[in-house]
Specification:
elongated; mainly alpha; 2 domains; 11 helices; 73% helix; Arc Repressor Mutant, subunit A
């Protein structure tokens, strides 16, 4: 068997950690588990990434493609946002990994940063008016409630609900938070 380069080993560790953190979360994933998946020594995991927490932060990134969100009229934004969120399986894995690791201070800070960059900022960019910031934050909270109910609590009725109906109904709730009071 050929030896891997340092960069190849680092990438194998990163891939293994990503899989395990998404499947098990931060607390239930050990450095030994990551090393075993990457077919390397646990000491190399620490050597390349410093700590398990730093490896977690290196691998868990949540992004949403803003283009489909910017492509719709504001009146359809709520429904489209819910549709985009639920269509991306990567979002679920990263969201759950971050939530499960959020008792660690740096992971909580990453979760707050993702909340701001991924949910609040794209929404606020579409809004106008003096209360645009609070409406964007309320909309992000509404979305967070849906993700929590679907992926943390696994509310059976929501999980098995007809997807287009869920998108339309929850999109309407989100739209209500986005719409200025008149």
């Amino acid at each position: 068997m050929a030896r891997r380069t340092g960069e190849a080993t680092r990438e194998e560790i990163r891939n293994a950690a990503t899989r395990l953190f998404r499947e098990r979360g931060f607390a239930r994933t050990s450095v030994r588990d990551i090393a075993a998946q990457a077919a390397t020594n646990p000491a190399l995991v620490i050597r390349h990434f410093g700590t398990k927490e730093l490896l977690f932060l290196d691998t868990m990134h949540l992004t949403i493609d803003d283009e489909p969100l910017l492509d719709v009229p504001l009146e359809r934004f709520g429904e489209r946002f819910v549709e985009v969120l639920l269509a991306d399986d990567d979002i679920r894995g990263v969201y759950l990994a971050l939530v499960h690791g959020s008792n660690e201070q740096r992971i909580q800070a990453r979760l707050q940063d993702i909340h701001e960059r991924t949910f609040v900022e794209p929404v606020r960019a579409r809004l106008t008016g003096p209360d645009a910031d609070i409406r964007a934050r309320l909309a992000a909270a509404v979305v967070g409630g849906l993700l929590y109910a679907l992926w943390v609590v696994e509310d059976e009725h929501l999980v098995t609900a007809d997807r287009p109906v869920l998108v339309a109904r929850y999109g309407a709730l989100l739209q209500q938070a986005l719409t200025p009071r008149g």
